Amino acid sequence: MFVRRGIRFLLTLFMTAVIVSSLTMAVVYFLLSRGPSVPRNATLVLRVPSALTEVNAGGLLGQVFGAPPTLRSIVNNLHKAAVDDRVSRVILVPSGGQALWGKIQEVRDAVMAFKRSGKSVVAYLEYGGDQQYYLATAADEIFLMPTSPLDLMGVASYELFLRGTFDLIGVYPDFLHAGDYKTAGNLFTEKTFTQPHREMSESLNADLFDQLVLDIATSRGRPVSEIRALIAEGPFLPEDALAAGLVDELAYEDEVLALDAEGQPQKISGQDYTKVSLQSVGLNTGPKIAVINVAGVINTGRSGYSSTEGSVVGSDTVIEHLREARNDSTVRAIVLRIDSPGGSAIASDVIWREVVLTRTDTPVIASMSDVAASGGYYIAMPAQAIVAQPATLTGSIGVVAGKFVVGEAFSKLGANIESVSQGRFAEINSPVRAFSPAERAKVQVQLDAVYETFVRKAAEGRAMTREEIHAVAQGRVWTGRQGQQIGLVDELGSLDHAITVAKQHADIEPETDVELVFYPPARGLLETLRQPLVSVRKNFPAPLFSSAEMHALSAFSAAFRLFKQGEALMLMPYLFLP
Asked: What is the pTM (predicted TM-score) of this model?
């Protein structure tokens, strides 16, 4: 009896502690999440960090103390500031480079749109890398810290090849592909570039560099040839950057803040301004358009999180969101916002089918972020229109599959793997030996069939012939600008531009404001309290690995941890950029 009473007492004490803790966090959440007081004649200091994401991982601490800004939160801040009478100017502070260029172009587009309000925007560079400077050129003026170089040097990409490492440890990567440019397996199978791989990488870099030069030249009012010549002379000392007219002034942040300010400058941070609702300044009202985020590697099942790959897009979850949106009679159109290198061919096809079913009742527009390639392109194909940033990586219409043969590696450790099987191809996925000629032929037939399905459905979606798609497919990755030129993309622009296109298809007047309904929806406090410890992606341990090295480890482990053994993958080649 005493034991039972003791257990009941402990349980009561535990539940009381949980309730008190939850109520305490709820009170803190309420106090900290209220909209901030925006001073008159305020300067919005908008910092653009590295590793911008489409969707926030969330978690209770993030809701209470402020989660890292997402791409959309930064864009929304610029939209609000443009119409908010309390905000007189914006100081843009690009504080980190991104892995790719699409999201940087998205923010740049939003800065250009903000300038049309007539308010000023200046950029402050504490460090001037290529991407930071590219974003800064959208501002009216650029200020560079007096001791910071301007590292404007062009575009470089780096790709890792692990074959030599596998040879050392006795692992044989046995991969097959459909498409000469389908180089996702080259990470494992090659020691250097193949000719198609190098050709594709050089083409991507050349187009990205041309975009960089053209946009800088346009914004700074300089000839393209002059900007190209200046980049060839980079990096620049701060005084040389000023003399070359690449920046307008050398100053510290406090000096930039004090410009045109009477007395103590009134400023508000981007993090605080995010708490100002769109509705409070007259935005995000009117007919509804759903925005369904597909951000991460595509796999079967529910969406979730991988400690190595980050966000994983589950086909079941995307289907659920598509059905919910199309069954909502108040939703006039759907924008499928894609930031994915692809993944499982099966999961991609499942989502493709649901997009086909959805578009019969509700217009569907695809909006591409940094990357929408391979499986990420596959799910965009049925949309009424595809909108991409000029620097988006897309295409990669091809298939790859294979296995890692680890028999020799285990043997070096004194281990031995034996098998017992029935069936001619029962051991096709054997981890001990490479594919036999008959097995290799069987796998290749399957890959070719998936590839033909990919090409056929792309031809149907793009209103092109099979031969036209095959000529630009074969696994080749293109920029969004190249994709538009060859027919894989309809228009170039941001998510906001895709929303404009969606309004056209939904017969909504262009000047009519719309309410955006995002999927997955933001989690409320009660739901967050039930799952308070949502992991947040980070490059850890930071002192040991660079972001490129973490990406390499991520790429290596994905084949083991995310997909079914022997599964055909619609996965874009991994690119390693500084």
From this structure: 0.87
